[in-house]
Amino acid sequence: MSEMATHGGENEPQTSARGKTRSGGGDPATRGRTTIADGVVEKIAGMAARDVVGVHAMGSGISRTFGAVRDRVPGGGKAVTRGVKAEVGEVQTALDLEIVVEYGFPISDVSRAVRENVIAAVERMTGLEVVEVNIAVSDVKLPDEDDEEPEQPRIQ
Q1: b/e per residue, 104-116, with b = 16+ CB within 10 A?
Q2: Which residue of 8, 34, 88, 107 is surrounded by the most CB atoms within 10 Å?
Q3: Could you tell me where the beta strands, DSSP code E, fall in 5-125?
């Protein structure tokens, strides 16, 4: 083992004739840029908000109706970003969420839990600082109220 230390082991960077190391310059983590699209942050925030107990849905009634139709179209997929708008900078992001709260849950408690969950998820997954999460409660889902999704067609 001492022989490796005195003669230079395989894991040490090799030097060129000029005495500079041949591996790239500096810390590998600083070589290049990572950009995160608004949609990525919107998906993370949408999933985190939906995980909170008391959140019935995301978005306004009209956007939920259009989303339900889009969900039924082959290839349309589930709109995870419905009710979420993000502005993403180089190191910070700001979010606007529109939620529907289930009847009986304190709106202030649900909003606080959504805000905390969204901030934790976005900061953990993206490394961005979340500077604000604005929440608009657009509706309250009553227990006997049907969802605003169109009926299934009888013939497919």
Answers
A1: ebeeeebbebbbe
A2: 88
A3: 55-58, 84-88, 92-102
Across the chain, mean pLDDT equals 80
pLDDT tens digits along 45-56: 999 999 999 999
Angle, CA of 137, 38 and 79, to the nearest 5° = 55
Handedness of CA 56, 74, 43, 132 (dihedral sign): negative
- Kindly give the parts of the chain with pLDDT less than 70: 1-25, 61-78, 147-156
Is beta strand 92-102 parallel, antiparallel or unpaired with respect to 129-141?
parallel
The one-character DSSP state at 97 is E
Nearest to 92 by CA among 43, 32, 47, 41: 41
The one-letter amino acid code at 138 reads: S
**Could you tell me what percentage of the chain is helix, strand and coil, using 3-state DSSP and rounding each to the nearest 5?**
35, 20, 45
Burial annotation 54-88 (CB, 10 A radius, 16+ → b, else e): bbbbbbbeebbeebeeeeeeeeeeebbbbbbebeb
Which tokens hold the place of 19?
């005495």
